[in-house]
Specification:
By secondary structure, the protein is an alpha+beta fold. It is 31% helix and 23% strand. A hairpin with an 8-residue loop joins β1 and β2. It holds the Pfam family CP_ATPgrasp_2.
Length: 470
């Protein structure tokens, strides 16, 4: 069983330095006033239209992601550990992707098993031997971080395909500044609003030197996608066009956008569509979301795709266990952030241990995301554990397991007042001329008491993440 969760505000009843000013402010606040601010935040989010759809929900209704009005606060030094760690990690992961589609030196060195690449659904044979402009495969990464102690930060998983959530990070800050200007006056909070400018600058850089004024677009599957709000938000903030597949066409291996003034060449596509749906000539033949001929244009170097095709090979949960070794192999450095211990069910010893300890573990599908298809052993019923055991026995290679972590808690405004709830953190790492990360990220919070599942699709919410500059 996990140890007692680390309380980020007041472990052992003592207020930690990053929260001291906030604690003094909070004690002066009237409960009714805080409740009113909470309702105002909900109203503002509804007015802005920040909703998401839940796949599999037969009602088709869009939901508002719950927002907590109490910020999560990190010191400058705490943030430096996280920031340095995720930038180091992204650099190694990007190098790994280039290597597995190239010389495969890490496999020949025996650091990563060859079968984990060759038999992986996320490995795109079509990318072998191809190098994108600037050798950048991952332009945007979302690295999920959990905290289990005073200086104990670990990586839970890497999101390198189409990582989402940055719009909530930015809107959370905007709402907090409107509701609590007095609180910001008391704290030196590092800004996050330069994210979109940095993203646009990086995307333009990724076009290569041969393009003087690159045209950037955001490619969305459309308004029924669960993250459509974010797609529209980012396009608007960057001042670029939001397009769907039918808005683009390929001629002579060059991508064009249909406009009222005629075709306009496109140089960089920030795509929010999975690999399978990008080009029906190469991947799924039945895709109506992509652009015929797009992959050929990409391979010819006529357009940049961000993130690159085939990045899923590096955020696969079967590969996750090897990232610390990637950092040592490619960078010659020790990992700044640890991995969470992981059991791979294709290993006989690991599988036996997991099957014997299911009530104590969290089990996930190798290709799963969003909190779907997972078992949280300590919270599961006997029947749920029994049914999940049958799934494991039928297809063990499709699962990994991890200890049930004592995720840190932060003060959260709930119906009963202010109470601790479990949180994680997704910093957004950007790669262009350099690798950088805005100071903050998306804190996700499990609003149900005792719950460890923070995903919005599973009832979780979000809160603003503050990094103190002094």
């Amino acid at each position: 069983m996990p140890k007692t969760p680390f309380d980020e505000m007041s472990p052992n009843g003592h207020i930690r330095p990053p929260y001291k000013t906030f604690d003094t402010w909070l004690k002066r606040q009237d409960g009714d006033v805080m409740a009113r601010r909470h309702r105002q935040a909900d109203m503002l989010f509804r007015r802005i239209g920040i909703t998401f759809a839940v796949y599999g929900d037969s009602s088709g209704a869009e939901r508002l992601i719950p927002f907590d009005i109490i910020p999560r606060i990190l010191s400058k030094q705490e943030w430096k550990t996280v920031s340095d760690g995720v930038c180091q990690r992204l650099k190694a992961l990007n190098t790994f992707i280039g290597d597995v589609y190239g010389a495969q030196e890490i496999i020949r060195a025996g650091k990563v098993p060859a079968r984990l690449i060759a038999q992986n659904d996320q490995f795109r044979q079509e990318m072998k031997g191809f190098r994108p402009p600037r050798d950048i495969y991952v332009h945007i990464g979302g690295i999920d971080i959990v905290r289990t102690g005073e200086n104990e930060f670990s990586v839970l998983e890497d999101n390198l395909r189409t990582p989402s959530g940055v719009s909530y990070m930015l809107e959370n800050r905007e709402i907090m500044m409107r509701l609590f200007p007095d609180l910001f006056d008391l704290h030196a909070v590092a800004p996050v609003n330069h994210y979109c400018n940095q993203l646009l600058q990086n995307l333009r850089y990724s076009a290569g030197d041969h393009v003087e004024e690159p045209t950037v677009v955001v490619l969305t599957p459309g308004q029924y996608n669960s993250a459509y709000f974010e797609h529209a938000f980012l396009a608007d903030e960057m001042g670029v066009d939001l397009v769907q597949g039918q808005d683009l066409f390929v001629d002579d291996d060059t991508v064009y956008m249909r406009t009222v003034e005629g075709p306009k060449r496109v140089d960089v596509i920030y795509r929010r569509i999975d690999d399978d749906f990008l080009d029906p000539r190469v991947f799924r033949k039945d895709s109506m979301l992509g652009v015929p001929g797009l992959f050929q244009a990409y391979k010819k170097g006529r357009v940049t795709l961000a993130n690159g095709v085939g990045t899923g090979i590096a955020d696969d949960k079967a590969i996750y266990d090897y990232v610390p070794e990637m950092i040592r192999f490619y960078l010659g450095e020790e990992p700044i952030l640890a991995n969470v211990p992981t059991y791979h069910l294709h290993r006989d010893e690991d599988r036996k241990y997991v099957l014997d300890h299911l009530p104590e573990l969290v089990v996930k599908e190798v290709h799963g995301s969003g909190g779907y298809g997972m078992l949280v052993g300590p919270k599961a019923s006997r029947q749920e554990i029994s049914e999940y055991r049958e799934r494991l026995l039928k297809d063990p290679e499709n699962f990994i397991a991890q200890p049930t972590l004592a995720l840190s808690t932060c003060p959260t405004f709930v119906a009963e007042g202010v109470a601790p709830r479990h949180v994680d953190l997704r910093p957004f790492v950007l790669q262009g001329k350099e690798i950088s990360v805005v100071p903050g990220g998306l804190t996700r919070v499990a609003l149900r008491e005792g719950s460890l599942v923070v995903n919005s699709s599973q009832g979780g919410g979000t809160k603003d993440t503050w990094v103190l500059e002094r």
